[in-house]
TrEMBL record:
Keywords: Coiled coil. Residues 38-95 form a coiled coil. The keyword Coiled coil applies. This is Uncharacterized protein. It comes from the Bacteria.
Length: 164
């Protein structure tokens, strides 16, 4: 069989191709009965279905492995972040206790200053006057991350600033 391939240019620059197969003197033409051809096509279709199923199964396994890898990497990243948050929370708790210690001392001095300025010359009634505080607590909690099984849970840890 001979392959004939021609590229032709038409007016106005349009290019098109013309190719075809033409029997040569060396070409043997084999004639098979339609039943054999149909049987071969059916066998080819069955083979293609098997290959298609195998390909789909391999694709599904690949997707599953990809998901498992992403989950494993994500869990490792979550563990690292949780560890960092818990470390920072511990540091914050220490700083909150330091703040309280300094605030208590400063508050004593602040009260003394107010009491010293509350003398008879200011015309204030001592029974009704209460010194102001320089600090107050509205809440004292920090975030902490715990892990139960495969679940990460952000919880609130109460910091007792008055515990010695």
């Amino acid at each position: 069989m001979v392959l004939d391939f021609n590229i032709k240019v038409r007016p106005h620059g349009y290019v098109y191709s013309d190719f075809g197969f033409y029997p040569s003197k060396y070409t043997e033409i084999e004639v098979t009965p339609p039943q054999d051809t149909i049987a071969k096509l059916e066998a080819d279709i069955a083979d293609l279905e098997i290959m298609s199923n195998q390909l789909a199964q391999a694709k599904q396994q690949n997707q599953q492995q990809t998901l498992e890898s992403k989950i494993e990497f994500g869990v490792q990243e979550l563990e690292q972040i949780a560890e960092r948050i818990n470390y920072l929370a511990a540091q914050l708790e220490i700083e909150m206790h330091n703040f309280k210690t300094v605030a208590v001392e400063v508050n004593k001095n602040y009260h003394q200053q107010q009491l010293n300025s509350n003398n008879p010359e200011n015309n204030l009634k001592p029974n009704r006057w209460i010194p102001l505080n320089i600090w107050d607590i509205h809440f004292s909690s920090i975030p902490t991350i715990i892990k139960r099984g495969t679940k990460f849970i952000i919880v609130e840890k109460i910091v007792n600033l008055f515990k010695y």
